[in-house]
Amino acid sequence: MAGTVDTRLAELGVTIPQAAAPVANYVGYVVSANQVFVSGQLPLADGKPQVLGKLGADVSVEDGVKAARLCAINLIAQVKAACGGDLDRVVRVVRLGGFVNSTPDFTDHPKVVNGASDLMVEVFGDAGRHCRAAVGVPSLPLGVAVEIDAVFEIR
């Protein structure tokens, strides 16, 4: 039987993939007491990087938003794995940390990371409202445009 969050994802037309395996010496998530700390997730689809490049140069804000949304889908995949497949165990999205591969003069980092923030609210409702950081960086793994990490509270 699908839970409330799974039903909402279906209504949104969002498919949550299997949690991606780490590509280096770390784990995808750590559960500590009632919190799940999720490692930075890239905009991967079918294991392949999507939206490569820099905001302010060769990536539009709109494509950056799409990349951030894909990162959020992959964050949800990790927390789903941490919760044994039951996303209804998520009590709150506590924090997102957004990293935007950008030129030094790019200043729309918050607009880009909204792609992830908006999805969290769409999926989890008020429990999806969170604090966050949205910062520019000179490069990201695999040349992707966005990377996002998260902290979730679970029951």
From TrEMBL:
Pfam families: YjgF_endoribonc (PF14588). It comes from the Bacteria. InterPro entries: Endoribo_LPSP/chorism_mut-like (IPR013813), RutC-like_sf (IPR035959). Transmembrane segments: none annotated. Residues 7-143 form the Endoribonuclease L-PSP/chorismate mutase-like domain. PANTHER family: ENDORIBONUCLEASE L-PSP_CHORISMATE MUTASE-LIKE DOMAIN-CONTAINING PROTEIN, ENDORIBONUCLEASE-RELATED. This is Enamine deaminase RidA, house cleaning of reactive enamine intermediates, YjgF/YER057c/UK114 family. It comes from Caenispirillum bisanense.
